[in-house]
Amino acid sequence: MKRAFSRVWSFSPKQRHQILTGRIIERSSARSVAVLAAAGIGTSLGAYELIRTAKAGILDGPDDASRHNVQTDHKLTKRELRFLQFASVEFDDVIYMSPMDFIDSLTLDAPRERVYRRVLKDKDVTRILKKTPPFRSGSKHFFRTMDQNGLISYSEYIFLLTLLTKSKAAFRIAFLMFDEDDNGNIDRDEFMLIRSLTSSLRSTTRVQPSKASEDDEVQDSCHLDAADYHFAVSRIGADRLFTGSDSYAVMFTIARMFASKAATLSGTRLVHKSEEEVRKQDTTLLLHLFGLRGNATLSFDEFQQFYENLQEELMEIEFYEFARGKSTISPVDFARLILRYSIVNLDDYHKYLQRVQEKSADDEQGITLHQWATFSRFLNNLAEFQSAVRLYINSNVPVSEPEFARAVGCTIGKELDPVVVSMIFRIFDENNDGTLSYPEFLAVMSDRLHRGLRGRLEKPWGWKPFKNCIINEVSRA
């Protein structure tokens, strides 16, 4: 070995670099497995997850379930995919969102950079749920204040999305549906009914591996690292370790900890919660709405206050994101905000923005927070607005700015600001004739309201929508 290095060192620095690099490259393929194994000694869990993820991507292809490490017996829906894309927490093999994950899923195109989901233990969940404020301390900064300290289940995610797309009239109907005993209040048990509407999304990070590598991986899983040993000593006590009359009990305790970890890593957990047990799990929303003991109730006015705080919080976040530190949103940025979730192709998207830019002055007043709040309230009443202008929709008659403003005023009881109406017509007035077509406008606004998470049929009737409906249902069977 010394003779080989002395021979290499006799060359020039550049030649030494080339020789050493060449030898490293030649030996890299032969030693790749050994290098990965050695590097994973201190971080066995992290390396194991990364290798499994890489295997899933190579062997299974671009399958959504394997890519997101989730158990499913059906093709994932848009909402499930969005939830899995942003959810950053796992607890008891169930995937959860944090409060900030929920906000990010509605305001960002892609999740914040992370390696993999955080796997929480019982003590971690207890610690973060203790930070949940009571309902009387709720505000329009609730989700931002909670940040990563909370759990939001998939069923609660669907519930919150529903609140963001409903008008006050539709919200009251939803409240009456929750209030089973018709006493004017919702308690925890009644609210828990939403947990039974959708199943939890289970993680596959601890599922039994394939037969080809099962024995090797299980054997590797049976080793505890130094952190596990120190944890065992701290739980039992160093003074009792293998000493005294109960030494056998101590040894049995440690053996159980080894078996528990081996079973957990190999996918054969000693305790696996049922779906019913998962639905009873405390979450941030449950503790916030019904207290730590779960004995609080919510009246309609209180529940409506939570509904309004949620909508205002999201509206503020979106406004300040596009305002870019200013007090108003520019006309072009307002168009980007309107078209953010719309299902339009790239060419049409750029045509919209170009049309707005050509019709806007450089020093023109933008959209204020108050004006954006009014427009957001209009979006929540989009279904009522669509019913009000159904005659125009069916006849495909274009409307002018005054007619549009009056129709909005009849829907929400307050007309949109003329500045907002003018900008809407700049976006959708393709022919520059001072009118817009309701069908195109409503299609884009519906995408915006549901944030691109709801599919849209070309027609609400006919053979093709019926066939698509049958295909979707059969694929989930």
Strand content: under 5%
- Protein structure class: mainly alpha
The proportion of residues forming helix, as a percent range, comes to 55-70%
Please count the helical segments.
26
Terminal Cα span: 65 Å
Order of strands, main sheet, comes to 3-2-4
What's the alpha carbon Rg, rounded to whole Å?
A: 29 Å
From the spread of the alpha carbons, the general shape counts as globular
Total number of strands: 7
Main β-sheet, in a few words?
A: 3 strands, mixed
Low-pLDDT windows of residues: 1-9, 19-62, 207-229, 241-245, 262-270, 456-461
Estimate the mean pLDDT confidence.
74
Structure in words:
- The protein has 477 residues and is mainly alpha-helical.
- Among the domains are: 65-204 and 280-325, no CATH class; 328-449, Recoverin, domain 1, CATH 1.10.238.
- Helices cover 59% and strands 4% of the residues.
- It has a 3-stranded mixed beta sheet with strand order 3-2-4. It has a two-stranded antiparallel ribbon with strand order 1-6. The chain has a two-stranded antiparallel sheet with strand order 5-7.
- α12 (214-221) runs antiparallel to α14 (247-266).
- The relative contact order is 0.08.
Short descriptors:
4% strand, 3-stranded mixed β-sheet, mainly alpha, calcium ion binding, 7 strands, globular, disordered N terminus, repeat, 477 residues, single chain, Recoverin, domain 1, MICU1/2/3
Brief overview:
InterPro entries: EF-hand-dom_pair (IPR011992), EF_Hand_1_Ca_BS (IPR018247), EF_hand_dom (IPR002048), MICU1/2/3 (IPR039800). The protein has helices at residues 2-9, 13-39, 44-59, 64-67, 78-86, 99-107, 122-129, 142-146, 154-164, 168-178, 188-191, 214-221, 226-236, 247-266, 275-279, 284-290, 300-323, 331-338, 346-359, 369-380, 382-388, 390-395, 401-412, 418-428, 438-449, 463-476; strands at residues 70-71, 89-91, 94-96, 118-120, 185-186, 202-203, 298-299.
